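fwd from M.: "can u put these together and see what the complex looks like"

so here's what she sent:
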Amino acid sequence: MQPSGGSLLLLLRAEPAALSDDELLDRYQRAAFDYFLENVNPENGLVADTSRPNSPVSIAVVGFALSCYPIGVERGWMTRDAAVKLTLAALRFFSTSRQGNGDDVTGHKGFYYHFLDMRTGLRVWRCELSMVDTALLISGMLVACAYFADDNDKEAEIRQLAEALYRRVDWRWAQGSTPTLRQGWKPKSGFLHYGWEGYNEATILYVLSMASPDSPTSDNSYEGWTATYQWENIYGYDVLYGGPLFMHQFSHAWIDFAGIRDAFMREKNSDYFENSRRSTYLHRDYARHNPYGYGGYDENLWGLSAGDGPGGFRTSVQRQRRRFSGYAARGAPFGPDDGTIAPWSYPASLPFAPDICLAALRHLGDRYPEVIDNYRLPSGFNPTLANRRKFGRHGWVSEGHYGLDQGIVVMMIENHRSGLIWKLMRSNQHIRRGLGKAGFSGGWLSGDGGDVA
Amino acid sequence: MSRDRTRAPAFPVDSNDINLVKSAYPPHWKNPEPNGPYNLIVIGAGPAGLTAAREAANLGAKVALIERGLIGGACVNVGCIPSKAIIRTARLYADMRDAETFGGDTPDRLHVDFQRAMTRMRQIRQRISRADSAASLASEGIDLYFGEARFSGPDAVTVAGQTLRFRKALVATGARAALPTIPGLAEAGYLSNETMFDLTDCPKRLLVIGGGPLGCETAQAFCLLGAKVILAQREPMFLPGEERDAAQILSDALAREGVEVRLNTEVVAVRTGGGKKLAGLVRDDETTTISVDEIITGIGRSPNVDGLDLENAGVAYDATGIKADDYLRTTNPRIYAAGDVCLAYKFTHTAEATARMVVQNALFLGRSKLSELVIPWCTYTDPEIAHVGLYPAQARQNGIPVKTYTVLMHDVARAIMDGEEEGFVKIHVREGSDRILGATVVASHAGEMINAVSLAIKSGMGLLALADVIHPFPTQAQGIKMAADAYRRTRFTSFWRHVTTRWLERSRR
């Protein structure tokens, strides 16, 4: 018997709560995956930074896209041919794009500018040549290289181009005159002097740079970075602190850090996977504390990260002056915190702390369904601003979607479900070599890397 | 006093200043007649010089103290004292704006009386300086000379036409604001810490150059007093060298109060136009020009070594100051140095501590070492940022495994009651032990709180013993004890829990 219109609506409404965990995750993962198909330029494989009109390309988002296509193939969301086509388009574009230290280029020294024009692929916004975003792009290329292993011309070309594009990056140049890698470079002013202080998302940048066969960073580069690490006991957790949650997620999207340890983690008798787990719990405990009294914060609404925000203004909340920001890196427990939650943090931390992440994801769907667009999560939302200033009863919700958020959601749900990306990257000799040079040992590094998906 | 580069009214500004001068540089002062060699000649009557002269005189030494300007040095006249007096008024206005937070009513219209704030500062400065008046120093048996001191040989100093001989001498001439090298700045005019306290009107738009302690304190205070402040900092964070999380909290606090924060930004040129100062700022490869009414620069301090004829005494120095060994002895074994003229840590309290060391080492065969001092410091922003001992990065560079016990001020009951929840206590210990390596406190009263940790380090007390020190409840210093308690909890390993559980089970039988 067909359900009536009313009962069908009821079924649809009740649906998220009725779904099993895996069904629920499948919907979120698929919705995030579709971002890439909706926002890719099939001509050159470049993917928009956000779904907003006239958004430029973010090279990191392209890296995420390249990493997500194999997942799409495995899940039956796209054909292998379509994945090969988009992957090749991107690799061919970067391979033939103009490099140099002048204007009208895409990159320099094998690195790429952070933001590019969707059509021409040239630098926009006078943005910086970005070391960490290039590393995320190259990581995506290496996923493609590992996955497209069939013996045909197109997949062979993918492997050849990915390898060549990785090899041509001049990592040593990006060290400047210091042990650590510079974060960026601009044609007129040279290297940006933003320092590396403390742990963050850049582990994969160091792994790739140290493993380079042709232009590796000096052997002390990773050590130079980890020298600034701070091991802290906060809220009863022993953690290597990094404020925003994305710092505990991005490198982990490609590398399974469970059970492998560098010198720092050997000293602390822990590993980076465990550290991400504790950091996830720390964020939840911070929301329980909710020191600033922000709306909604509790054990199922937490997660501060880098992402969109309501904009730069100051207003009073519970008779306290608070400053709100636009796109910013928010962190716990030291801040900044303006009550803006990054809900994609839940799937992105899923492999580390599945129980609390799933609980938070379900709570989000139950309590804040208006922020979820057909299972796709926004960059951020701020319930504290409900009925304040120009904001409506739902507070502020980020407009459109961000590719970075969607990419990490697809990858981390997959790693939680099947470990596909981790397995692919375990087989990559560059990753293994880079980890080895950074001092990692034990766990899966002790094996021969043959456990490919 | 160093050269005046301000367009603000020249010192003395009011009757408080005139009284200060009368006491700190009496106009008709008659220098004493030297009578034989001195046990100790002290050049410079700032915190280091005053401490050394008093300490030595107290112990029976024949002491001469030479000052070319005002007694009190930078601290009382142009440093800590006037700046913290103004910060207090700035905090008052912040509290008035936030009155609702504390259960009060915010005034409908808050008028900042800048002149009254500055007058209060001058009153306080004058009052504190009275303790070190020329007359009181003389009454303590110190021969006080006013004039420019010059070494005329390895054991002699001339001042105001007289030659003074010494067995030992101490150079404690301090430091002054460094001259910035920004093209056009000198011509356009600017204020430094030496001249900004002579302001009588609050600048409407103010550019503060430099995000070190002085720059951050100044930017916040003037912002709270009603100026539109732009704070330009060349580095990617404020307070370089301080912990990242401390700098982050300060950066957020400054921005929340309305300071326009410009990190990674260099001021490359200044010119005047339309009655304003136009400053060119460069961030990466982007250049912008901002228009302001006044510029305050807080970058760097230069040691006062010129004009002392140190060469005549064989005392080596360079741009960073007088070269002194760990015992604070210069390259002339009769001559010592203390305070800002020779130290990297240019604080009043280090000046005083090193002066005491010099009295012991120079006059009583002492062997006190600079490297053994436990030196805390504090930046008096809101929240304050205080530190003592090693930073984790320093410990790691020296191969010391370090672990930090962190307590957030929002978990400290008294901080919640006081509406002063911003910040943290971090105590760094050698991993696997309770030996305290250092601490950073970010809190409204961090400067007061850090003392417990300094005391523990100085006395060799471990973090476990600190956990047993009873603190009155409720106090914000409880945060220190809570960090120690966090350490104690980690000692309850599963093994010990097993042992205690078994013991308690037995005791129930």
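replying to her w this: The CA atoms of residues 114 and 201 of chain B lie 6 Å apart.
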